[in-house]
Amino acid sequence: MKNIRTIIPDKYRDPVYKPVGNDIFENTEEHIFVCTLHFDLEEGEDSQYPLEDVLEEFCLYISDFFNKDFFNHSGSMVVELAGEHHDLLKAVQTITGKRVYNTEYQGKDGRIYVKLVIE
After folding, report:
1. Long-range contacts, 5-14 (Cβ 8 Å, 24+)
2. What CATH number did the domain enclosing 44 receive?
3. Number of domains in the chain
């Protein structure tokens, strides 16, 4: 994942969405916090990884997909992330403008593991 940035989709104009700063909104009907990210997939990445690892790292989940053709495993993705405000804020501050990818490494036990890298 690269060229990660927040965007504000038109649906956030609905009064149910209350801005709380840093392009994060509170959905006052569902009582959740949301933020929409746009990013480009790198060669060899698919729509699952490293996105799933980012979700796990920051205790978030996907609440909406804005471009349904993301399953073609190439190009850009636009996803709405949801979770606790502090988790969303930490994620936005940590990955915006960065490159995020998975790398394999060999553990002391000789087994191969996958690590999330943010740079």
Report:
1. 5/37, 5/38, 5/39, 5/96, 5/97, 6/35, 6/36, 6/37, 6/38, 6/92, 6/96, 7/36, 7/37, 7/38, 7/78, 8/36, 9/36, 9/66, 9/78, 9/80, 12/36
2. 3.30.70
3. 1
